[in-house]
Design a protein that fits this description.
The protein is about 45% helix and about 10% strand. The protein is α/β, with parallel strands linked by helices and about 400 residues long. The longest helix is centred in the middle third of the chain and has 21 residues. The chain is globular and about 60 Å long. The protein has a single domain, classed as Alpha-Beta Barrel (TIM Barrel), CATH 3.20.20.70. A four-stranded mixed β-sheet has the order 8-1-9-10. A three-stranded parallel β-sheet has the order 2-3-4, with helices on one face. The protein has a three-stranded parallel β-sheet with strand order 5-6-7. The structure holds iron/sulfur cluster. Iron/sulfur cluster binds next to loops. The site of iron/sulfur cluster has 10 residues, from loops. GO terms for molecular function: 4 iron, 4 sulfur cluster binding; 7,8-didemethyl-8-hydroxy-5-deazariboflavin synthase activity; iron ion binding; oxidoreductase activity, acting on X-H and Y-H to form an X-Y bond; transferase activity, transferring alkyl or aryl (other than methyl) groups. This is Cyclic dehypoxanthine futalosine synthase. It catalyses: dehypoxanthine futalosine + S-adenosyl-L-methionine = cyclic dehypoxanthinylfutalosinate + 5'-deoxyadenosine + L-methionine + H(+). Keywords: 4Fe-4S, Iron, Iron-sulfur, Menaquinone biosynthesis, Metal-binding, Oxidoreductase, S-adenosyl-L-methionine. It comes from Deinococcus cavernae.
Length: about 400
């Protein structure tokens, strides 16, 4: 933990002073942050961000979301993406359809796919292992971060393998990472209200822990707006921080690569009108508190799909050091509303970071910088090239 120099010295609240000194906060102290003026909390969060990551740089990833099936038997009340098998617009992609999407990603210089789906009871284990092998054979430069803990829990129950055996099979077939989707609020009271059949917190951590032990990439997540209390939010952050301590110590540093947080979207879902959601103010407050609480996770993402580009730019001064990724295709947040944009081009993310006062850098999924784009050249690229880039996202 890094103590801060002078910029947060004007903050008077003892909890913020403690955080500014780089000292770890407990649950009650984190909860107290919600009652303090946001500018004060943001100032400390921003100073901690500047101390923990390169203060001049904002990173992002060129990737694509691929949702291989929307058939799901979990039926979360907050989900507008899933379908039952009998619904006309249900789908499962075949390998060639997925390959086509990856070729489009390769055309714009992408290096990883984030591949998740519904919990589809009709797909055998061979669909998944065959898919991973197909991708590695035809797209060897693409990293595959795939399957949420919810999907893995289903595989475990269905395919007659222990969690360790299952992960070994998936890794052998080509799996590089297990994204931490489905974190929402890792408190079972909240989860049971929003989605009775949803994976519970203990299973989420058990699966993430096994993935980290096996060296897989993982990321921590949080969604606010279910009506959860500040105490529940604080406990969610502490559980993530505890897991990160454990992974860092026991798994040779292979903990969460970062933290991503967004706000609940309820359009077209059964929670519409029942869950409060969260305003931009609450989003920025929660982001700043996460930066302060998660002293062992250096990379914090701003969420443009849920909050839009302008709030994402502001988030870079509330503790975030990263703009997430291009996605090219986002189906889950967008099905439930979200902001009016569900993919973004490399050029747009460069512009967003540049206009906010930072040097943009392209990273891999482990937050290692792999390219320093020529900002002037990219921002002045021809209209023809811009159209080509935009067409990839639109052509899904
Ligand atoms: S959030 Fe995931 S698990 Fe829940 S219904 Fe939607 S696709 Fe299924």
């Amino acid at each position: 933990m890094t103590a801060l120099p002078a910029t947060a010295a004007a903050v008077l609240d003892p909890v913020l002073e403690k955080a500014a000194r780089g000292e770890r906060l407990d649950a009650q102290e984190i909860e107290r942050l919600y009652s303090l003026p946001l500018p004060d909390v943001a100032a400390v969060a921003n100073d901690l961000r500047l101390a923990r990551r390169d203060p001049n740089v904002v990173t992002f990833l060129i990737d694509r979301n691929i949702n291989y099936t929307n058939i799901c038997n979990v039926g979360c009340n907050f989900c507008a993406f899933y379908r039952t098998r009998r619904q006309k617009d249900s789908y499962t992609l075949d390998y060639e359809q997925i390959s086509q999407k990856i070729r489009e990603l390769e055309d714009v210089g992408g290096n990883r796919i984030l591949m998740q789906g519904g919990v589809n009871p009709e797909l055998p284990l061979e669909y998944y292992t065959g898919l991973l092998r197909h991708i590695k054979e035809h797209h060897p430069s693409i990293r595959i971060d795939a399957f949420s803990p919810e999907e893995v829990l289903f595989f475990e129950k269905t395919f007659g393998l222990s969690l360790d055996e299952l992960l070994d099979v998936l890794i052998e077939a080509g799996l590089d990472g297990l994204p931490g989707a489905g974190g929402e609020i890792l408190e079972d009271d909240v989860r049971a209200g929003a989605a009775p059949a949803r994976i519970r917190a203990d299973d989420w951590f058990r699966i993430i822990d096994a993935a980290q032990r096996k060296g897989l990439y993982t990321i921590s997540t949080m969604v606010i707006g279910f009506g959860e209390s500040y105490a529940q939010r604080a406990r969610h952050l502490l559980k993530i921080r505890d897991q990160q301590d454990k992974a860092t110590q026991d798994y040779d540093g292979n903990g969460f690569s970062g933290f991503a947080m967004w706000t609940l979207q309820t359009e077209n879902t059964r929670l519409h009108g029942k869950a409060p959601g969260a305003t931009a103010h609450e989003y920025l407050q929660q982001l700043a508190i996460a930066r302060i609480a998660l002293d062992n996770i250096p990379n914090i993402q701003a969420s443009w799909p849920a909050q839009g580009f302008k709030v994402a730019q502001a988030a870079l001064y509330y503790g975030a050091n990263d703009l997430g990724s291009t996605m090219l295709e986002e189906n889950v947040v967008s099905a439930a509303g979200g902001h009016d944009r569900h993919s973004v081009t490399k050029r747009e993310l460069i512009r967003i970071a540049h206009d906010a006062g930072f040097t943009p850098a392209i990273r891999n999924s482990r937050f290692q910088i792999i390219e320093w784009p020529n900002v002037e050249e990219v921002l002045h690229q021809s209209e023809e090239n811009r159209e080509k880039e935009r067409a990839v996202g639109a052509g899904r």
